[in-house]
Design goal:
By secondary structure, the chain is an alpha/beta fold. It is built from 5 helices and 8 strands. It has a domain of about 110 residues: Immunoglobulin-like. The strands form 2 sheets. Strands 2-8-7-4-5 form a 5-stranded mixed beta sheet. The protein is elongated.
Length: about 170
């Protein structure tokens, strides 16, 4: 490889590296995948799984299944377990769905009867850019002012460390 190509590759890794750690792929249903729940007691298993996770914009869901399908639907279609015009449909067995906004997403199986037996899920995607609620004057007065000190979020620390490591690796290998 030429030096110019190596420098170009390093710059791509440095500037794009931070965005690589900002999203997560979640495998729906863990090892069982996207299946009809085995018993009536498990009819909320996907909503229970979803409540154990925190989803944000650009995260993806991986639906693994055989002889089935997955549809994103409206809240009304979710409640009825029927969708004549799904917002998203796939039946390829390895479906990846990317969250492009915050808010609620509703998923059901497209196979007749599967949704009624519990193969459905609601996901809440968090708006991580949301600003915290304003503080009252009393709360502000009780906290010491940190003038000139920047506070980093855990994700900011991870992103900074990732960029540092990639930069160091580029310097070593170029």
């Amino acid at each position: 490889m030429t030096i110019l190509f190596k420098v170009f590759l390093c710059l791509i890794l440095i500037f794009c590296g931070g965005s690589l750690v900002n999203c997560t792929e979640f495998e729906v249903g863990r090892r069982d995948g996207w299946i009809v729940p085995k018993s009536k007691d498990d009819d909320q298993m996907y909503n229970h799984w979803a409540s154990e996770n925190r989803f944000k914009v650009n995260d993806t869901l991986l639906f693994k299944y055989k002889k089935d399908s997955v549809m994103e639907v409206t809240a009304e279609e979710y409640e009825k377990c029927k969708a004549s015009h799904p917002l998203f449909f796939s039946n390829n067995g390895d479906t990846v769905f990317k969250f492009d906004r915050s808010g609620l997403f509703y998923f059901i199986s497209g196979v007749s009867g599967h949704c009624d037996r519990g193969q459905k899920m609601i996901i809440k995607v968090l708006d991580i850019e949301a600003t915290p609620p304003p503080q009252s004057a009393d709360e502000t007065a009780q906290k010491p002012h940190k003038s000139g000190v920047a506070e980093m979020t855990p994700m900011g620390i991870i992103t900074t460390l990732t960029i540092f490591v990639m930069s160091t690796l580029c310097l070593i290998f170029v």
